[in-house]
Amino acid sequence: MAIQFTRNGRKAMLWAQVEAMRRGELYVEPEHLLLGLTHGEDTGALRLLDRLNLSPIQVREAISVSLRPESAGTRVASSQLSPVAKKVVEQARRETEVTADDYVGTEHLLLAILTAAENGIDNREDAGGYISLQFMGLTHERAATALIQAGEEAKTAEAAGE
User: What whole-number distance in Å separates Cα of residue 57 and Cα of residue 76?
Assistant: First the structure.
């Protein structure tokens, strides 16, 4: 079954590919997916980061330490998902089951990336960049709790007629 993304989810996936291509990478890795989540405005992932007092700039800086720098000379025409990134996207689909959503959004991708970091889905030696987010306090548990709280607050506001 094909994975269906929200509009922002699709945009984040495209941005991840752009991030990989800018660095001359043949494969989109989880770090590129995370960078893709920092683009855009008012996405589920950005709202989660805001609730956790983290900015997209902080995330980009933490991730950039483990990536090849952007290069004007070394670019590739296209990049595809690495095996690890495919596992992350599949985990994002599973996250939709937990949240009872029909489409994979940026918030699901963020939760899946954090799962990969915490549960060892990614055992590459150079995967330290996005794992460093844990030191900033960005964990799956904290992000999932923030997502649940946001949903509850939205339901309460809707019930109150706001």
Answer: 25
Rounded mean pLDDT, 6-25: 94
Helix or strand run (H / E) with residue 27: strand 27-28
Q: Which range marks the domain in which residue 20 is found?
A: 7-159
Tell me the β-bridge partners of 27: 80
Please state, for a pLDDT cut of 90, what percent of the chain lies above it. 39
Instruction: List the structure tokens of 88.
Output: 């992350």
Number of folded domains that form the chain: 1
CATH code of 89's domain: 1.10.1780.10
| pLDDT at 120 (0 to 100) | 64
Structure tokens at 150: 């946001």
Q: How many CB atoms lie within 10 A of CB 70?
A: 13
Q: What is the pLDDT of residues 49-100, one digit of tens each?
A: 888 888 999 888 888 877 777 765 566 777 899 999 999 999 999 999 988 8
- Residue among 96, 62, 76 nearest 19 (CA): 76
Q: Is the confidence at residue 108, as pLDDT, over 90?
A: yes
